[in-house]
């Protein structure tokens, strides 16, 4: 699943526990969590309850692709603890133990064998000291996985096999002891103040000892000079002062030592690879009383060990039953300080998945003497206090965890599911089993049967399976070729089994079409050739067998085309070179076999670097053809054509040379964008539900992970709804604004014969074409019903629950659901069915009718009780990340269904609703049935609204009221990154949740949030790029970004050290500081994965910079939201201060910055900045260059009439259209919040444009490419909005408004028609009058002047007319006179315009008569809608008409 999507995973584990071959184990310091890593790459987090000694598997962490070698604690932060894991292929991950999220990933060439967590002095966070297959000790930051410094060796550098860190008494630095594989002991002294990045710290001492390949080095807690070193063959005790040896003990036959630790000053415990541990008493010798020779201060310590003075083995730690382990177990010893002493615990995890815990009791000297004197010698046996495993946890669950095929009756011990394949086109799930059968079941019906209560349990034909039988033994793999490429038959399903056969099935009839048996081993994998192969190969499938062979089988011809069977080692990978008819087979020994597909000839065998290059060339070539759509910028994600050209020449590949040449031409010339479809088509054909099989080991049965893709679900619901609507209905529901934009667009362009008709009609044809997708309405509804039923908080509001069941179509869950989380790099954490977030002792009383509780078995009553508690409150007590994702999914889908004319999830009712929409579209008559339908829809809409309000606003209080000790609130940073999500419904849900959460925090919580995120805010103190404000810019709205200086110096600001464009800037002297001017990351998704992470530690700087940029982006949005909604409150810190200025500068920078590689023109981050500038404009205005910001927003809106539907339109749009829509909305918000600022700024820019237009020819400017010319439609729309909604502000600035309107409206429209026909909204003001005969427009100003616009001459004359504001103006019918009235001075004047002789010379307007008028009452003056008007009743007589109907006549 794509990381940018909002996906909700859910697991159906099945009746068998997953295999867990434990390779390493970690017991956290708080003794509440155990983490185990497996050889299969998975990790398991266990909850441990010390008082009851109960161990419960909580979640499985899936992500590592190789065996987990070592684990270490990663410290605590933000209320949770972290653990760091490392695998044998160099993967290193940091996990959040609360919910299993992967928060950081590193892939490097360094493979760690051991990691030690240590809290250094005067350092806030812990440090991770790692050793492995490299000749130094690397010290990491566990949260970022950056290498902070390293410890290296000058003398005999070698791999460090073990280390120990200690802080000597009365010293302020740390001492690191390390032993190399060659037996050299190294001593480093480390203090934080001496650490220099990139400069290794060298050892202070080094000495050779007799210990090769040491596995463990431990200093005694009670006496730091006593050192235990364990290797496979022996363990030894040394003095850390001079590393003199006290004693040595060899391993017994058949055992190998693995590690050890000190129980006390003279007792050690050492464990072996056979699963046992031995406890020893170190040698003692009476010297001067009770001196003990193992204490390094005693003189006897340095004497040579004598016979009979050996350590005494007095205890054996072993499991209760004898066992034979295939792999060595993993051990950890832990000492917990208590008031009464110390609790000593020994933890072991083995390859059987068992976790054992021993509590090691102290043995007194008296007991020890009795043991040593007993004959025969019998050591103490320590039995495990706790022995648990996933298998035992599964067995204890009654009823067992659910699986997808549990509905099959008559199978007491059903065969294991060994292969799974989901067929989204048919909505079916194919499961191959161990007995050779293949079961086909309807996926959604089957899942609903297991997870939800409802009437479907009574249907006999619900989720009926189809059984395909043909294999003799296990089914290994399944393939649906039509799902990979439409060239295959839709009915064909292909399966491969352990019986060497490949069978082609007819999925609809269940018939076996053909059986291939061509390979001498079980079938391991089935593949489809690429579409560029020859026609014959295109009808083939590819199979990989255990006999190291690869076969091409033609389904159409039903025969073998190619059998590639000369491989000496198992097949690792299969690649294609269609243009050469080559099939590339990579094997485990690094060889690549090149086969000709048509002839079956082995062309050559490649090895080494050549083999890697050929495989790499196959990868690049396979990705190139599908990536070339779009404009010239779309080729940036492809490899450089020169690389293709070079490789083509090197490998004699003419097709690669031609392809490189074509791509080079395309990069030079570019390609034309196609704006015909504004929709983002990537989601139009995606199934909202995907099901994947999950196995931790090849021998396991398949569990199944369900992925609910929220965006795909919303897209399918909305596109289904929109296709039922006519353009008029879409316009009426305010989903599109085609008619408004069409009308404005006609006004801004030269008049044509059809212009008048278009303006009169007022409704252009709907330009938004709704994309159609597969008709999967019923399946989509079932998926939506499942998702909403599982996520809804049942039990918190009884009346809402009834509404959900009876009206909205939700169903109550049957079991507590095992959810999952997708985190960084696609790593997953999957919760176990054995774990419940609420302890049994804390569960409230069950809410079940007594008669029903008496009928059900006790285990079903308990299951129902657990389900009720989980769905009501436990669901929201798990972790903030889970709460965030589930609330986003729930609220966005609920809003979608509410916006779909109040749709429900009941299929029958939904069919009736859609039939009603179609019938009402055909028949417009309103009947009683229509009224009943409307009432029903209002009830449904109210139900969805209540559900949304519960989960958006009321949920924290309801969860706490239900008995939850803590509610895990959503993570504000994730919501901030979703502020401008690609999907409109998810975007609105994130915005609503973030605003609610910020309000719930209160001022103190918001202040803490500001303190956390404000350090990440970039400071852009340099002059911002002008970008689109240049009047001579070209057609591309965002030219490439020029290189800006890396650092800017200012004075008077706090000194900060910041990373600037990947380099570290240091504060300079003299009060100047280096500012953070790093580009914020354009990608905002919290799970976004950077490809740089694959490049290893050499690119960690790039990765760190990328992560820093992402934090900057989050900080900008988060502080922008706080400022926009709470910034006007002085208590928030957003007053006239530094924080508001920094935030506004950062937002403005994102809006104004030209497009570049680091910040493309249309990204979620830029959209978020556009949106937040609009929402919080009153807060940011003092720090912004308003003109530049408005022009930049208009630049985005230049194609509004062609691109943007309304903000209510829910389908995802292409980035250009989305930016256009967001900028248009931001302009509306700015104009509404500050009408005078908007009008005066735009009027000033129009005046500059007019001046530029007059000199355009001499300056050689193309005036049609300027922003003010291209955005006329949008300007006119905003002005009309202001005229309608902000009448008072418009009256104060009538002249400026008229300047803007006349700039936008093409003069040709006013030649034959009046202003009241062309732009009627502005004629509602009495201060405006248009004379069609003389083609003049008069506008009254607030200062008493009259602006006379001569449309013929394109000029304006200002006439001083009155001492106070002009109240009304009107031209006489013949255009000879102009009457003006001023209510402030109670005066009416007549004006006459005279021109020079024969029309030459300047025209002059003079006042011919003046009259006094009746004073207007104050109550009328205060109401702009009751102002007096001037109405001409003849060419010489005008009527002064009052709002109450009184009239006064005046003659010119």
Fold and architecture overview:
The protein is built from 37 helices and 66 strands. The protein has 1452 residues and is α+β, with helices and mostly antiparallel strands. A hairpin with a 2-residue loop joins strand 27 (330-338) and strand 28. Helix 9 (710-723) packs parallel to helix 17 and helix 22 (1100-1126) packs parallel to helix 24. Mean pLDDT is 80; it is low at 286-293, 623-676, 755-768, 770-775, 1021-1078, 1086-1098 and 1397-1401.
Secondary-structure map with pairings?
Layout: E1 7-12, E2 22-27, E3 33-38, E4 43-49, E5 54-62, E6 68-77, E7 80-87, E8 91-96, E9 102-107, E10 112-118, E11 127-132, E12 134-140, E13 147-152, E14 160-166, E15 174-180, E16 184-190, E17 201-202, E18 205-208, E19 216-219, E20 226-230, E21 234-239, E22 245-250, E23 257-264, E24 267-272, E25 277-281, E26 312-317, E27 330-338, E28 341-349, E29 354-359, H1 365-373, E30 380-382, E31 386-389, H2 390-396, E32 417-423, E33 428-433, E34 437-442, H3 443-451, E35 466-469, E36 475-479, H4 481-484, E37 492-497, E38 502-506, E39 512-516, E40 523-527, H5 535-538, E41 540-545, E42 550-554, E43 559-564, E44 571-577, E45 582-587, E46 592-596, E47 602-606, H6 608-623, H7 641-650, H8 654-669, E48 689-694, E49 703-709, H9 710-723, H10 727-732, H11 738-747, H12 755-761, H13 777-791, H14 798-808, E50 818-822, E51 828-831, H15 850-855, H16 858-872, H17 880-899, H18 907-922, H19 928-961, H20 972-977, H21 984-1013, E52 1049-1050, E53 1058-1060, E54 1063-1065, E55 1073-1074, H22 1100-1126, H23 1138-1152, H24 1164-1175, H25 1177-1180, ...
Parallel strand pairs: 13-17, 26-30
Antiparallel strand pairs: 1-49, 1-50, 2-3, 3-4, 4-5, 5-51, 6-7, 7-8, 8-9, 10-11, 11-12, 12-13, 14-15, 15-16, 16-18, 19-20, 20-21, 21-22, 23-24, 24-25, 25-26, 27-28, 28-29, 29-31, 32-33, 33-34, 34-35, 36-37, 37-38, 38-39, 40-41, 41-42, 42-43, 44-45, 45-46, 46-47, 48-49, 50-51, 52-55, 53-54, ...
